[in-house]
Protein: UPF0126 membrane protein
Organism: Nesterenkonia cremea
Amino acid sequence: MVLALELVGTFAFAVSGALLAVKKGFDIVGSLLLASLAGLGGGVIRDVMLAQGVPTAFGAPLYLIPVALAVLVVFVRLIREDRLRRTLLAFDAVGLSLFCVMGSFIAYEAGLNPVACVLLGVTTAVGGGALRDVVANEVPQIFNPDGVYAAPAFLGAAATTTALELGIFNAFAAVGIAAGIFVIRFLALKFRWRVPLAVLRPGPVR
Amino acid sequence: MVLALELVGTFAFAVSGALLAVKKGFDIVGSLLLASLAGLGGGVIRDVMLAQGVPTAFGAPLYLIPVALAVLVVFVRLIREDRLRRTLLAFDAVGLSLFCVMGSFIAYEAGLNPVACVLLGVTTAVGGGALRDVVANEVPQIFNPDGVYAAPAFLGAAATTTALELGIFNAFAAVGIAAGIFVIRFLALKFRWRVPLAVLRPGPVR
Amino acid sequence: MVLALELVGTFAFAVSGALLAVKKGFDIVGSLLLASLAGLGGGVIRDVMLAQGVPTAFGAPLYLIPVALAVLVVFVRLIREDRLRRTLLAFDAVGLSLFCVMGSFIAYEAGLNPVACVLLGVTTAVGGGALRDVVANEVPQIFNPDGVYAAPAFLGAAATTTALELGIFNAFAAVGIAAGIFVIRFLALKFRWRVPLAVLRPGPVR
């Protein structure tokens, strides 16, 4: 079950990487690299932080299948890039929702304290997308003030950690929280929800 | 004592991250993420290199307090952003001075050889700021040839490692070295000190 | 022998870093940092993934010698920067060829499965150059669709892993595979070989 959700999340983020490769005019090998970074980067950062040996993305070849599949479906245009921005955002949101839940769960299993579980959930969720955007020389999605992005990941990681602490976390809870986070992210994009800027009443910047 | 200096350095770098978030027009969640990267990134890289389990920034929730505080003081404009560039540079310099000392000290405690202690001091000092700038899609401060930046960090890391080897390192030495490095960085900015360019007598670039 | 090839590869990538520092107008300390990232970054990422303690680049001060040497030869213009782009590409290609072989070999020695060995060979080969370009705020070489870049690294890592599995890997094989990969990269640049783009029949991007 854990594995299934991880693989779906990996596929979703990998599609977002392959679509960004299309947008930037990269070739198919670049698409494979960017899809790998997006799909596996968050999990690799999480595993390095947990310091429990070789990251699962390297240890288990299984994780390459959703990445290769993502590159393929984008290449043959099964996932069309002609409404590129919206499609990219949708797949990115699926990955975000699943990875904030899985990241917190895996950190909890590794015995970390609840605060660290929330932090690692957020890191797993935003890490892959941040790597994808930074390596492609774009300002990361996480910093786009149109619509909230990291805030739902915080929420999902906190809900997962709370459920784990209360002993009520299971497969249904995992899918439920992820679905809730996806809806929040979707509504945030549709209605252009915003969180306050980094400063109250900003003056002219010098 | 070690902890106190770490927390002050974290606060200083976190302020630099929150101020950069203001400059780039990010929202408060983006400010939190950029402040975390700037304040905790250098220490996390150091801990990953030392390979001694979960990085302290994740293991000890205490480290989040200076980050949250930094975002808050920037948000309510206790630290004003209207002389933004200068304020950002000042907080960045405090973080740089403290982290080159702390990075070398922690590497020494972990039993690394002196050369590695110097390298890890520099890495700790410039790592957080580099992550902050790279993720915000700016050319990192470390590469700005106006005023020296990494050179004082080298100096501070070398002085700390020497003091440790001679057995004369203590809390006073730590604060003394950090203060000296801050003054050097400050003078370098004020008088526009420069180190030689990467090439002797540069010709036209093709 | 392993060490010798590692040091030559480190020197080659470090030269590419120092030349990029010249191109970007950085000073000599920036050149040292960028040369370190380019020369040592791929190996450090590999060692962190292998989770076998402190990365060799930090544990063994010997690795700093090729980096310092690279910065020096660029500084005194022994390696001229007046045909900058071509020289940079040549040194980058030497590093790429050696590191895809060494990365796979070291991963194999660490007991990883063959797929992971190929992945880590590619990661070692493209990691340092990617860090170099990302930190200098350039679109990484790996994504340049003019001439193939990551594809030869895949080929070299796959050839090395196959040779290891068949028990026919030795110093001659290592140098032979690296030379073959260098020639392929060279021909790819000269004759502007291309791999297909990330999408079949790309339409206008929206």
